[in-house]
Amino acid sequence: MLVLTYSLIIAFDSIDSIANVLWLPIFMFLILYGQKIQMFMILRNVGKKLRKLEQMNSSSKNIVLKSLIEKSDNEKIVKERFDRLLSSFVIPPVSMDPKGIITKLEHILDTQEDNMKDEIKSMTKEQDDTEISVLMNLVEVSLGINLMYKIIRHFYISAKKTGNIMVIAQIQMILPQIMEQAEAYNAAIPSLKSKKPIGDGIGPLVASRLSGESESKELVRDTILNEVRIENRNAFIIKAKGPGGNVGKPGEAIKRVVEENKQISLIITIDAALKLEGEDTGEIAEGIGAAIGGPGIERYKIEEIATNNKIKFLAIVTKMSEKEAITEMKPVIEKSAEILLNKVKETIKQHSEDNQDIIIAGIGNTLGVK
Questions:
Q1: Chain centre distance of CA 157
Q2: CA gap 205, 367 in Å, rounded
Q3: Residue-wise pLDDT tens digits, 39-62
Q4: Cα–Cα 20 to 30 A to 226, which of 36, 150, 196, 203?
Q5: 130 and 79 fall within a common domain
Q6: This prediction's pTM
Q7: Which range among 14-18, 82-86, 287-291, 347-351 shows the weakest confidence by mean pLDDT?
Q8: 217 and 81, same structural domain?
Q9: Is residue 14 part of a domain?
């Protein structure tokens, strides 16, 4: 028995010695080449995503280009100008001195929109405003996917060229969000082509239902105003001009209404809001402030005019994902419009008095919403 025990101890000692001998070169190998192996694995993963992004970019460009060619009689000019649009860029204003930066940014973005509209008009023949706005939305989606593809490609090539793991680590961190956004943009193209309402149109949809058959007038660029009686109050309903894919200038419109009607006591904005993971699509939430996305110009105007005139401004939103916001409106989102209507009426009764003047703004893209 002692002999057997002694033999086992010797055997285990031998195995332990062999393991130590084997682990030493493996350990040295990992020290010398571990980072390169990690770099190789990350680059391989990013490369797969980059190829998928390239396919989406190519597909979106072909679909949008085909849509433009169908509306044109000169295919060569369309291809040349479309390539030029995809390479265009916007230089933001200098922010070292913030005074007047909102005005500068607004002017730059208006110039960009005018330039794109002029380019599309020159590529197509005798298209109405609705068709032009839809084509602009399609081009903007293609521009977005193209930019995302270029950014990922830049970091991928830079990482391969320099062998710097910190470069590829940056793109690995933001890649999931970029891929999710690119897939959402890519899924939006069929919805835009069909001219059906998208999730982001829930605000204008509610505003349209509140307006009913009342007469509308274009107050500012691509933005209309209806005056109606709601819950015994004088309501100014503001939304972008439909059924084209416009977002209008609701902030400027609200500013104009307040300047002309000093008795405004309440501003309500209705919009789509990005849901958090775990939240349900179509969920309604209420808040304080101006519910409006974008670069911040229109929200600034609402906040400024409401603050200067001591007007209470509230927000009511419908939750949805980014993909749901820019693709065809789901039935669950459309059903939330009725809940929003009731919420708006409750808010009006709770936060204003009879015969007071109020503003209700339906924020969002009016594609398919008159």
A1: 27
A2: 10
A3: 778 788 888 999 999 999 999 999
A4: 196
A5: yes
A6: 0.85
A7: 14-18
A8: no
A9: no
